[in-house]
Amino acid sequence: MACESPPARVSRSPVRVIIGCALLAGTGAARAQASPADAPIAEPAGAEGMSGMAGFYGPYALTRESSGTSWQPDSTFLTGLHRLSGRWMGMVHGLVNLIYDDQGGPRGATQTFSNSWLMLLARRELSDGAFGVRLMLSADPLMGRDGYPLLFQTGETANGVVPLVDRQHPHDLLMEAAVTYSHDTSPDSSLYVYAGLPGEPALGPPAFMHRLSAVDNPQAPLGHHWLDSTHVSWGVLTGGFIWRNLKLEASAFNGREPDQDHYNIETGPLDSWAVRLACNPGADWSLQASSGHLVTPEQLEPGVNVQRTTASVSYNAPLALSWQTTVAWGHNAPTAGQGSDAFLLESEVRLTPAHAVFARFERVGKDDLFLAGQPLYGRLFVVNSLSAGYVHDFVQLGGVSLGVGALVSTYSYPSALNASYAYRPTSFMVFMHARL
């Protein structure tokens, strides 16, 4: 599918913007000039109004931008609070979940915990581009270093000695601190740079908590370390070129995943690289393909590098209030051991402002479910996971939505795992959330 040309530039003015409107314009507006008036507004900001506001990296609608420098469909339904003041635009997004988690089977566990994130964005219009600041924080470290129970999840460590197995690691307190600069080279093209400590390199689809297809799902994907685990990298420098609805970018970054100390600031060499090609062929589509070389990503596997390759497609169906689906594939090829793949299909439909349903299917090759010395250590097992859930936002308090929800998960895998996991255990989560 060929990428289309963007429509003519849209003029920006400090008008009231309401979050949740559908993006009616085409494939992206060019960078707008700021109004000379200084009329700050603190309102929810929505896709219809946001389509008249330019992005951080180029001449297109701000609704196209997601985590790091990644793209999502232009018609993505946004949430958050928005403020305009002269040439400055500020936004804040956030989510807090309080979760009761019951993972079934012999290797399951129960736990009540909270996960969360808060993102602050600021953009200043320049005569020929834009300057931006991005900050993302999380209170995940409060749940403890060993995170929360999640069957078949692997990656990172809680103590620097033993890997986490059947648990999802917490994110660092500081998830992103980045500055950006973009320069318009023509009415429909731009060059940009992104620098973060930490930041997100040009590798993989948008991080799972920022995908509309997963926005209400409180459970991390099992394929996280094949697709988007680099979204917290301690040292990133990215440069890119955008022409109309095509983007080519490259990153140098620190390939080591965060360690068990989640409150500190880590430093290290920019020893890894990634390249990504993205295209938004229409307002409802976003495609990317990327590859990266990660130097010693796992703390407990020194000297083992990984070549990671990913591809993904996100689509917003023009039905209901919003309906986004993401299909993604990731392949890890380590310098020691065997390669493995992860496939993901996830979708969320918001039927009304108060009701949404979501689902996720994954097929992931896992060779780290057992520790050294155990009989099945090092064997690769293909695990299938299916989860589905529902959320009801029952009250709106100013700019905050309060909701309750639940999800249930089931699994299938080779019979050799039955002795450890039993036959098709069932897991569930019940949660409350507050969303800006």
Offer a concise description of the structure.
3% of the residues lie in helices and 48% in strands.
Identify the notable features of this structure and list them briefly.
single chain, 436 residues, mainly beta, Porin, two-stranded antiparallel sheet, 3% helix
Describe the structure.
The chain has 436 residues and is mainly β. It has one domain (43-435): Porin (Beta Barrel). Helices cover 3% and strands 48% of the residues. The chain has helices at residues 47-50, 224-227, 418-421, and strands at residues 43-44, 81-85, 88-102, 110-126, 129-137, 148-157, 163-168, 174-186, 189-196, 236-243, 246-253, 272-279, 285-294, 306-316, 322-334, 340-352, 355-366, 381-397, 400-412, 426-435. Strand 14 (306-316) and strand 15 (322-334) form a beta hairpin. The longest helix is centred in the N-terminal third of the chain and has 4 residues, at 47-50. It is globular and about 65 Å long. Mean pLDDT is 89; it is low at 1-49.
Alpha plus pi helix count:
3
Poorly predicted regions? 1-49
Helix content: under 10%
Apparent shape = globular
The CATH architecture: Beta Barrel
- Give, in spatial order, the strands making up the sheet with the most strands: 3-4-5-8-9-10-11-12-13-14-15-16-17-18-19-20
The CATH class turns out to be: Mainly Beta
State the assembly state of the protein chains: single chain
Largest sheet: 16 strands, antiparallel, barrel
